[in-house]
Amino acid sequence: MLRRRLCSIFNASVRTQLIATPPPPSPVPFRTLRFVQFLKPRLRSDEGFGFGGLRAYSLLSLNDLRGKVPRKQKTRKGRGIGSGKGKTAGRGHKGQKARGSGRLGFEGGQTPLRRRLPKRGFKNPFSLTFQPVGLGKIAKLINEGKIDSHELITMKTLKDTGAVGKQIKDGVRLMGRGADQIKWPIHLEVSRVTVRAKAAVEAAGGSVRRVYYNKLGFQALLKPEWFEKKGRLLPKAARPPPKQKDKVDSIGRLPAPTKPIPFSVEGKESALITRHCRLSLKLDAAGFARARLRTPTALLAPSSGRHQSARLPSSALRFDSLLWSGLAWSGLLFATDQAASSIAR
User: Fold this and answer.
1) Structural domain of residue 146, as residue ranges?
2) pLDDT tens digits, residue range 61-113?
3) Is residue 210 part of a domain?
4) Which residues make Cβ contacts (< 8 Å) with residue 112, sequence separation at least 6?
5) What does pTM read for this prediction?
6) Mind listing the pLDDT tens digit for each residue in 40-68?
7) What residues contact 31, with CB distance under 8 A and at least 6 apart?
8) Where are the beta strands (DSSP E) in the chain?
9) Half-sphere exposure of 219 (CA within 13 A, CB side)
10) Residues 6 or more apart from 160 whose CB is under 8 A from it?
């Protein structure tokens, strides 16, 4: 760079000598100065050939500062055609390579690496999340007087007293933590219960029942005031799906009950319901056979005599007998239901 600057100074001096008409003055002796460079002459027509009137500059300037390690200067693209990398900046016209880069992980359409790798596990959409509560916490709330041990402890009771959090998703699971603190009989209705917790409660003379609520029924159990505010009736209790019948003991009751249901009464009731269902199936089959035969019925005159009953085929006679027995069983079932309701109250 020093040589280039000296050459520019010399060329300027030669041009000055050719333009000037008067004789050149005596030349100024050139002295080499340490760390000084003669850069720019005073281009005047009255000066002759030489280095007179030059200004001295330091060899150090900001554009001359460099590190010891040589580095390649970065090419600035898209700054005009004079730079050689303007307009298309060396990418050419159109095409995928002339445009921006694709999204992270895109491999041109083939299966990306994140999908080629092996997969582990999955998310079960049918999984149920139960909030756990220990027997020790329930015993502590009973000792504090927040829970009455003489009444039925439901999931609404546990939520209102703070035994479980307010964000209950699918139900409550009773755990055996602090089982040695249960010294008196208590009756609970929860969604799930562990073997240790059930054994501890039954050893103290209490009972634990696993009840089923669907999402709407569970909301009606925990927040019945919401339905009253909207002017709606409480929904009816829903039956459990077939895959959960072995995991529950009974259908949840609405509104929240205050007294437990004895297991003995429920066993008789379930047996009556099963018998009634079987009888209904038989009645449906007999009724279909009677409608197909198109015979008169002896329903209005069950004791009209053998001469009228003899006119009917055997299938119609079976239908009449099953119908009367079905009515009798329905009355018995209604009476049993009323008795169970009075006991629960």
Assistant:
1) 131-264
2) 888 788 888 888 889 999 998 888 999 999 999 998 898 888 899 898 999 99
3) yes
4) 105, 106
5) 0.47
6) 444 454 444 444 555 555 667 888 788 88
7) none
8) 36-40, 55-58, 131-134, 172-175, 187-190, 192-193, 207-212, 250-251
9) 8
10) none
